[in-house]
Amino acid sequence: MDRHPAPRALTPAAKRSLRIMFVAKHALADGSPHAEDGTHATYHREMRLVLEGMGFDLAIADSYRALFERPDVDFVFPLLNRGGFLNSEMMLPLLCNRHGLPYLGASPILRGLSDDKHLTKRLAVAHGLPTAPWAVFRRGAPVEEANCPVGRRFVVKPNASSASWGITAAGDWNGVRTAVRKLHAEGHDAIVEPFIDGHDIEVSVVTLNGRPLVLPTQIVMQDDPTMLRTYGEKRNLEAGQAYAIRPLLDPLVAALVESRTRLLLEEFRPFDYGRFEFRLDVETGEAQFLEVNLNCNLWSQKTIALAAAQIGWSHAQLVETILTESLERHGLLNDVVELAA
């Protein structure tokens, strides 16, 4: 595989002719870290600046309300994922579908499939991917010990969480039950998995010339592989950072998780961009499938941008490539696309 393919770029004429709406919770903020969302606010500001720097006629919004009526735009770039209610990741794509308005990323049904960790794991198992045992406890359904997987320690989290929001650790069934009931009280389904001492492996995928391109794989090296990464740590709400995102240098493990990713990604096409995650067990060396994050974090400090940099793409080139491919897929470019020099 060519590890250094050229990025895509839009012509000046295409940028002048298309009106794009960028929707993100902190799109209108100044980029300062938010009290609850942390550097997610910094990320949204950066994305706005990148799109403005491309020269688009850009409409900017920070709420779902912007799409309650059809806006006067050609295309929507949706980043309002965690909207404060269950399955909010599907809302913007649904609103766009209601208006027949093209948008970046996967369809609502595919977003729902990827955001439901239980269903995604079922899909992975169907494709033969090694996956640690788990249990889903839907809100309103019984919370019974017989359904809990065997383990020394457990991870309990919302079944549709992102950035480890709401994640907790438990040492026994009583702890699991308490954590599950707490999530149910907050309106969320819960998923329970044995905790695997190790590091996360993240495989980023974009679309290039109409085909999935697997970018160089990254590993999230934790200072202590027995510790649970938290939402506060991922959003820089806590002092210090006990992990680092680095290139995965083991060619055998990289080839393994990338081949498994290629098996699974076909179930989600077209999705424009996403991240497929595995957990590397430091005791056994096995890479267990974890989850899929379609429309993953595009911030320049996160995995997909760091992976793109390894093939020589700047952050702006990554964003423009993803956007170009999606616009072309929706038939909005005709003959105005050209390869970047």
Features:
341 residues; alpha+beta; D-amino Acid Aminotransferase, Chain A, domain 1; Dna Ligase, domain 1; six-stranded antiparallel beta sheet; 10 helices; 15 strands; globular; disordered C terminus; ATP binding
Helix content: 25-40%
Reported by name, the CATH topology of the largest domain is D-amino Acid Aminotransferase, Chain A, domain 1
The largest sheet is: 6 strands, antiparallel
> How many H/I helical runs?
10
Uncertain ranges = 336-341
Q: Please identify which CATH superfamily of the largest domain we are dealing with.
A: ATP-grasp fold, B domain
Number of strands: 15
Tally of discrete structural domains: 2
Structural class given helices, strands, pairing? alpha+beta
Shape: globular
Order of helices and strands: EHEHEEHHHEEEHEEEEHEHEEHHE
Our estimate of the beta-strand percent is 15-25%
User: What is the CATH C level class of the largest domain, in words?
Assistant: Alpha Beta
Distance between the termini: 20 Å
Please tell me how large the radius of gyration is.
Answer: 20 Å
Mean pLDDT: 91
CATH architecture classification name of the largest domain: 2-Layer Sandwich
Can you tell me about this structure?
Keywords: ATP-binding, Ligase, Nucleotide-binding. Belongs to the D-alanine--D-alanine ligase family. InterPro entries: ATP-grasp, ATP_grasp_subdomain_1, Dala_Dala_lig_C. The chain has 341 residues and is α+β, with helices and mostly antiparallel strands. It folds into 2 domains: 8-129 and 197-339, ATP-grasp fold, B domain (D-amino Acid Aminotransferase, Chain A, domain 1); 135-194, Dna Ligase, domain 1 (2-Layer Sandwich), CATH 3.30.1490. The protein has helices at 12-17, 40-53, 91-99, 108-115, 117-126, 173-185, 231-234, 251-265, 303-309, 315-329; strands spanning 8-10, 19-23, 57-61, 75-78, 135-137, 154-158, 168-170, 190-194, 198-208, 211-214, 218-222, 243-247, 273-281, 287-294, 337-339.
